[in-house]
Amino acid sequence: MPFADGVQVVGVDGDDTLWLCQDGFDAAEASLARLAGDGFAAELEAVSRRNLRLYGYGVKAWTLNCLEAAGPDLQEQVLAHGRALLAAPVELLPGAAEALDALAAAHRVVLVTKGDLVDQRRKLAASGLADRFDHVEIVADKDVPAYQELLRFLGCPAERFLMVGNSEVSDVAPVLAAGGWAVHVPHTTTWALERAAPTEHPRRVQVASLGQVPALLQGGLEG
Ligand SMILES: [Mg+2]
């Protein structure tokens, strides 16, 4: 069977798939690490893992985690970095708009992103891409139940759904587990909590850029 045969709905991730995200966190953390000293990065990762179920994802959770990891002396610097991230311009990845247009020619295209509702809505508006989606889904976490709920809402059987994204943990593994297809488009930098070994799976492929996905769905690339 050709890859993604019969797929009708394509889910597309936002952060680090359509627009830059992790680079901003990396730069802010490097800046804070210079002030907080060695061990900040490891402490922040441990704190982030511990708080994940309580805080969820996004800049506000990151700010709270940095406050905890850096200690009270750096409160002002942490808050300033958090505010800057929440106001940062949205920078599209190359070919994002063109890829969405090409996908929309033959599929329903849905944005599936997670994290802070206010910030994700802001980024979507600033991206200029909002009109290209048939539906926008902002979830607290991209786990199997969240995808199943989305597919029920869309009236889309899992085998007719394909997800495109940079995270093996959020965009690939849960979609395969739910019975859908997945295309992994790695970004240059990946948050520690989103890293996972690539899985071999007949409904998963990896491509180098988002721009390759439309041709892949039209059978133009080797699956
Ligand atoms: Mg992402």
What would your notes on this structure say?
- This protein is α/β, with parallel strands linked by helices and 223 residues long.
- Helix content is 46%, strand content 13%.
- The protein contains nine helices and six strands.
- It has helices at residues 22-36, 40-55, 59-70, 75-87, 96-104, 117-127, 144-154, 168-178, 213-217, and strands at residues 9-12, 108-114, 135-139, 161-165, 181-184, 204-206.
- Strands 3-2-1-4-5-6 form a six-stranded parallel sheet, with helices on both faces.
- The termini are close together.
- The model has no long low-confidence stretch (mean pLDDT 95).
- The chain binds magnesium ion.
- The site of magnesium ion (MG) has 7 residues, from loops.
Features:
Rossmann fold, alpha/beta, elongated, DNA polymerase, domain 1, 223 residues, 6 strands, 2 domains
Bound small-molecule species: magnesium ion
Q: Classify the fold: give the CATH topology of the largest domain.
A: Rossmann fold
Portion of residues within helices:
40-55%
Shape: elongated
Q: Taking strands numbered 1, 2, ... along the chain, how are they ordered across the largest sheet? A: 3-2-1-4-5-6
Strand count? 6
Distance between the termini: 10 Å
Radius of gyration: 18 Å
Top CATH class of the largest domain: Alpha Beta
The figure for the number of domains is 2
Mean pLDDT: 95
Query: Which structural category do the helix and sheet elements fall into?
Result: alpha/beta
Portion of residues in beta strands equals 5-15%
CATH superfamily of the largest domain: HAD superfamily/HAD-like
Residue stretches low in confidence (pLDDT < 50, at least 5 long) are none
